[in-house]
Specification:
It is a single chain. Helix content is 36%, strand content 19%. It is an alpha/beta fold. The strands form 7 sheets. Strands 17, 18, 24, 25, 26, 27, 28, 29, 30 and 32 form a 10-stranded mixed beta sheet that branches. Strands 1, 4, 5, 6, 7, 8 and 9 form a 7-stranded mixed beta sheet that branches. A hairpin with a 4-residue loop joins strand 17 and strand 18.
Length: 774
């Protein structure tokens, strides 16, 4: 059987908004072993027109084999076919379609190359159908689930899945456990995480499939386990007690559960939690099927500007531990792929530079000597203090060892101005701060700015958000406010936090992630950025505001197709202000009030994926030159580019070599939102004088007048209406399968009017050719 897999469609930025493109459509060849069983995916098939060679599209499809977790890729033109075997790297010679392998023959080959015997009882989970059908799952979730079950069928008890934050790991976990239970491979299972919020989310999701058979692990108040009668136990490490076991005392894990009590364990976010004392959960159940879920890459490649930092080195060790215990990931789905497929929101990065001015210096923020700071006070008591002789405070010490109130106020003012320019201040935003007191100060400053804005715009008291900004930290029991942040549409817009919101909290409405703290851990950085990746109705993109160079961690180990820009706003700053603070932990923090602060744009950059697969921020000029060079290597002439552009398959091949998302980024950073991608690329690579979509449509009207005048009036009207769609939708609008459902096209006569003058497809193709020749 042939199964259609369609992605949501890439999300592209256009000015200050974003939209979905048409999703990619792929075809899987599957075989159902027996009635009622889940079909086994064997191969991907790439079909091209009969006018093309049978190998057309094969190279592009080879890359899809890993994504779909199939060993074979077939390409065909309807007359002949070729087959690529991903396990050997070999491609067959073209053969007639009459020789295409029969389903049983292909299934036999699949079993040989994968090492899976479908008659083996351990393969039973692979043949279990999805609970509730396949309508709700995505292609990569299916591929990940199959990869785990194939490993189990081969006799392995450990499997690691690496999936981007926001890719739906909870859905994957629930389906894995359900099908293991249904297959009779598991009697009791444990889902373990490290946060109460994650436990609550998992319990709710699992209860939808398991009903009363799922329960959270915790004491009933009399020393007994509330989950003791459940088949599926959901726990945090803390509820199992393995992180604080004292000499001579049993933890909840050892008190409630004998060794190998569980037949399966799913460990969520295992890059944060599986090691050290907490690994006892796994080692005490060594015979169980153990599945690790993580957003951590297989390897962590640390560039020079990150290597050596404490957080980065710790991440590298965790990553190595994951692979050493579980083995290589059986399936990987990264942020870049998720964005390209349209399942995660596009990211825009706005970098800002902070300058500190004292009586002795005026420099970009790197650190300050005590002699530069002027009068110092104790941030808690306000009493005058003297810094240690020769003391130097690195930028990462700010807010931890020394507080500069004007720095916080100026950063908040700059952020608030950006919010005003990008849709208004009432956007769900997370600001990552250094410590609890810093989160307090940022919330206070943002509330002050919001109150002033409300006063200036005449907003009534009843229409103001209350609260607007709020502190959400572990020290302040911020967990109680997460529901308000997530659910309130009229308040709780700006959450200031330290670590509480960095992981395990799903607030899809978040549109801005802000770094006021210095980050050294790539894993933590990606977890923080991941708070903004979820899609919601009306939200296809989010922004990262980077005040501390945190975005240097993009491209470390795992990648993101993010766009980096800096808006050319005026410098902001102030020369006065007082403040007071309390570290909240009893240690002394100094406060410096004699420092002026200004914030400026840090340049205009885009993230370009190099030949080594790592994203690097480069200037727009260099990026444009690189893009032009790549395009010219694919198609050396403007005429050739124009001819290939109007053929969808040829255009996709060109864009795939760039890739397409990078080409669209160039349009945005150059301010060419009103131009079709054809003109953006033509100008970059061939010196084409670019025309806006509107100008190109107008040029068509008079340059194609002689051709149009030779057509019947109604046909001419339909073509005018079709080309009119190009003004707003560009190339995609001209090729839309819904073009004859557009009201303007229907009103002009639609498909029937075209038929009076010839073959509609030929007329539309000629109109398109003339649009790009105009």
């Amino acid at each position: 059987m042939i199964f259609r897999e369609q992605t949501a469609g890439a999300i592209v930025l256009e000015g200050k908004s974003a939209r979905h493109l048409t999703g990619r459509l792929d075809y899987l060849m599957r075989v159902r072993l027996r009635p009622g069983t889940q079909p086994v995916a064997l191969a991907l098939i790439e079909a091209k027109s009969e006018a093309k060679h049978p190998t057309a599209g094969l190279e592009q499809a080879k890359g899809y084999a890993r994504r779909f977790n199939v060993p074979f890729v077939f390409a065909s033109n309807g007359h002949q076919f070729v087959c690529y075997d991903a396990t050997t790297g070999l491609t067959t010679d073209p053969a007639l379609m009459a020789d295409f392998p029969a389903p049983q023959s292909l299934l036999d080959r699949w079993e040989v190359v994968t090492g899976v015997d479908l008659e083996n009882p351990r393969a039973a989970a692979l043949l279990q159908p999805y609970h509730g059908g396949e309508g709700g799952r995505r292609y990569y979730q299916d591929a990940a689930i199959r990869a785990v079950f194939e490993a189990v069928a081969r006799g392995k008890n450990r499997a690691l899945l690496t999936l981007a934050t926001g890719a739906g790991k909870t859905y994957i976990a629930t389906q894995l456990l359900k099908r293991l239970f249904d297959a009779g491979l598991v009697r009791r299972a444990l889902f373990v995480c490290d946060r109460d919020e994650l436990r609550t989310q998992a319990t709710t999701a699992l209860a939808a499939l398991f009903g009363g058979e799922v329960a959270a692990v915790r004491s009933d108040g009399q020393g007994a386990n509330e989950a003791k009668n459940a088949r599926l136990h959901v726990a945090t490490y803390q509820s199992l007690g393995v992180d604080d076991e004292k000499a001579g005392e049993l933890s909840a894990l050892t008190r409630w559960y004998t060794g190998n009590y569980f037949d399966a364990i799913v460990i969520d976010e295992c890059h944060r939690s599986a090691w050290g004392a907490w690994s006892e959960v796994l080692t005490r159940n060594s015979d169980a099927i153990q599945i690790g879920l993580t957003a951590t890459p297989r390897t962590l490649d640390l560039p020079d500007n990150v290597a050596g930092e404490a957080g980065a080195e710790a991440d590298a060790k965790i990553t190595a531990d994951n692979v050493a215990y579980f083995g290589e990931p059986v399936y990987v789905y990264d942020i870049a792929q998720a964005v390209e497929d349209g399942y995660l929101a596009v990211c825009e990065i706005v970098r800002r530079d902070i300058f500190l001015q004292t009586h002795t210096s005026n420099e970009r923020e790197t650190g300050l000597n005590a002699t530069d700071l002027g009068p110092l006070t104790d941030a808690r008591t306000g009493r005058a203090e003297v810094a240690e002789e020769g003391a130097h405070y690195d930028a990462r010490d700010f807010e931890a060892e020394i507080v500069i109130p004007e720095r916080t106020r100026t950063m908040c003012r700059d952020l608030f101005d950006h919010l005003l320019k990008t849709g208004g201040p009432e956007q769900k935003t997370i600001v990552f701060c250094v410590r609890d007191k810093h989160a307090d100060d940022v919330a206070m400053a943002m509330n002050q700015l919001y109150a002033q804005w409300c006063s200036e715009t005449g907003r009534s008291t009843g229409a103001r958000a209350d609260p607007y900004a709020f502190k959400c930290t572990a020290a302040s029991d911020g967990s109680a406010l997460i529901a308000d942040f997530k659910g309130s549409p009229a308040s709780f817009f700006v959450a200031t936090t330290v670590d509480l919101l960095s992981t395990g909290v799903d607030v899809p409405e978040v549109r801005n992630i802000v770094f006021f703290k210095y980050v050294t851990s790539p894993i933590s950085f990606y977890q923080m950025v991941g708070r903004g990746t979820r899609l919601t109705p009306g939200k296809l993109m989010f922004r990262v505001y980077d005040y501390t160079d945190a975005s240097r961690l993009f491209g470390v180990g795992f990648l993101s197709t993010a766009r980096t820009t800096t808006e050319p706003t005026a410098e902001s700053g102030s020369d006065n202000g007082t403040g007071e603070g309390d570290t909240g932990d009893g240690s002394q923090t100094l406060q410096a009030d004699g420092v002026s602060v200004r914030i400026v744009g840090a340049g205009c950059y885009v993230l370009d994926r190099g030949d080594d697969g790592v994203d690097r921020a480069i200037s727009v000029e260099e990026y444009r030159a690189r893009l032009a060079e790549r395009l010219a290597s694919v198609e050396p002439s403007l005429d050739g580019f124009r001819k290939r552009w109007i053929e969808p398959d040829e255009r996709r091949a060109i864009l795939a070599a760039l890739p397409e998302s990078n080409a669209r980024t160039l349009r945005i950073v150059q301010g060419l939102d009103a131009y079709d991608l054809f003109d953006v690329l033509g100008a970059a690579a061939y010196g084409l004088d670019p025309r806006s979509r509107a100008a190109r449509a107008e040029a068509f009207e008079w340059k194609a007048r002689e051709w149009l005048d030779g057509l019947p009036t109604r046909t001419r009207g339909v073509l005018h209406a079709v080309v009119g769609q190009f003004r707003t939708g560009g190339t995609e609008a001209l090729e839309s399968g819904q073009i004859f459902r557009v009201p303007a096209v229907i009103a002009a006569g639609g498909l029937e009017a075209l038929k009076t003058a010839g073959e509609p497809r030929a007329l539309l193709w000629e109109a398109k050719r003339r649009v790009f020749a105009a």
